[in-house]
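Case study B.
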Amino acid sequence: MNPSFSYQRTYAVARKEFLHIIRDPATLFFAFFIPVLELFMLGYAINTNVRFISTVVFNQCRTEESKRMIRMFENSQDFRVVKQVSNEADMNWMIRSGKAKVAIQIPEDFSRQIEAKRSAQILVLVDGSESSVAGEALNVSNALALQESLRNSPLVQPFLIESRPRILFNPDTRSANFFIPGLMVVMCQMMAIMLSANAIVREKEKGTLEQLFMTPVRAGELILGKLVPYLVLTFVEFVTILFLMWSVFQVPIHGYVMTLLMLTLPFTFSFLGLGLYISTRVDTREAAGQMAMGTMMPSIFLSGYVFPLDSMPAFFWYVAQIFPTTWLIDAARGVILRGAGWSELWLHAVILWVMGIASFMLAAMKFRKRLS
Amino acid sequence: MPLPTIDARDVTIRFGPVTAVNKVSLTVAPGEVFGLLGPNGSGKTTLIRGLCGLVPLAGGTATVLGYDVAADSERVRAQIGYMSQKFSLYEDLTTRENLDFYAGVYGLSPQRAREREEELVELTGIGPYMERYAGKLSGGWKQRLALVCALLHSPRLIFLDEPTAGIDPVARRDLWNLLFRLSAEGISLVVTTHYMDEAERCGRVGYIYLSQLLALGTPRELKEMPGVTPPGTRWLEIYDLNTAALLEKLRKIPAVQQATIFGQSIHALVEKDRTLPELGLQDARVIDAEPSLEDVFVTISRAQAAKN
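Model:
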């Protein structure tokens, strides 16, 4: 900053901005209620682990072997038999109407084929309209068939190779552990961008900016004074979600909270900067809100918040790397779930700081140019 | 002769191809109340913004309080007060919070800020409203609060852009009384207004039309401008029961160059050597009059429009 930078003027702006925040219940509501609501939705309602797929059974064989096969499907806890039908038309209708996602048809000759030591077939129909359900049903039915075949085979006893997977860091594969760290980051982003996009636009709308320009306050002081309260508010929100995640949803934090906060700081800068840039481009709060929402979308869908980055096509994977959100979500999961520290996250820190400073400086320069 | 508070010479301001202010020269003395008049969009506000250093000058020079506005706009802004057309304080802040904010951005020490607030509260009587939200104040009190904010840093020059637009007559008079008290303390005031009675109160008046300063002087000097009462004409004040019907009649007579209604009477510019019956005024009560400021501005605007 230049030599005549005034701490007093900056403080006056910051205090005024803080008063605006506490006088505006709508902002506070959006800042805290909405994220907490989403937190509870993600924490309690959403579970991406597939269990108890509704299943219809058409058993034409009705032998002890065939019933045993069906019990095996049920015991896996992946399938829940909702109906037994006695003809093919009913079975197909159950799938088409969505009452069942999977249909298991055991043909009449099932037991005879096994006794004759020939390959016995069962038909498993899977509704592919929900890809995760379909994938799970496919895997489990294959595994069950394989297991049952081996059991009936006299040749290999016991199994030669047995896979014993152990899931690290999130042993119960709880969805909350995956979603909440991402939610924290996305909410923090929304907050930072919305608040700062409105900060200047509100003064433009009310005509108070003109009055401010007549005072000796400088562009740098105005920017800093306005953004500091928003930075504080964003951090309060971040820490609130972090606390609820730990206390209510019992997601253990394996790393240091301080590490995470230090990575969140440059992240917040980059979105405060983006919001500021938006506010120099538009004149109404509606327009600012729309532009802010527009920038939210790609960083929600490409950041790995919902959809895993690894399964993206290469092009989108590279695109995802330019969003600060991608880096902070990865870092947040690292710190919270895997206990990652600086030795694993130094690259995240460097990239986030570069992005944060670049975005902030560009916005400030643009803003200064608009003023003079 | 003291240094003028404002010394503008051939000030020109352009926005791209549009010339918003065209070679305006004027001076304002310490303690003077200077009225700036002109239609909307004529360039008054732009001129003020130029004199504050907010928009660059495309030509000419201007010094304000001894500082060149082009080179020293920051010093200029630190020593002038500005009250804009629209109420531009924070409505969700109380009177006191607004004052504290402006004291802060003007860099007043807490001690000085308190002293100054006390003085201004006494001057304006805004004391009972200190804890009220600015948005809940009436129009007159809003304007007074805006004035207090503009005065906090003890400026020696204040620009007031239509300070009385939309406030009631009592509040308007109170505000003018305040302005004269400031003027008596040696503070210069530049006031834009559309009200002719306010223009009459000003020490000197400048009239801007289509970006040019067409007239400059005391209200008396303006009324005596040769262009306002061309040779061979005179101004009449005509009283009649049905002024509207009479006005229609007068406008059809070639010897009547201008006619307009002022309340119960008609102001008309007529050829000097015509008798009253020739003008169809035998039944009306007619007295010789001097042109009003409005007559002045209308006449010179028309002359200028005809020239373009």
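Chain B touches chain A through 25 residues (CB under 8 Å). The remaining cases will be described in the next quarterly update.
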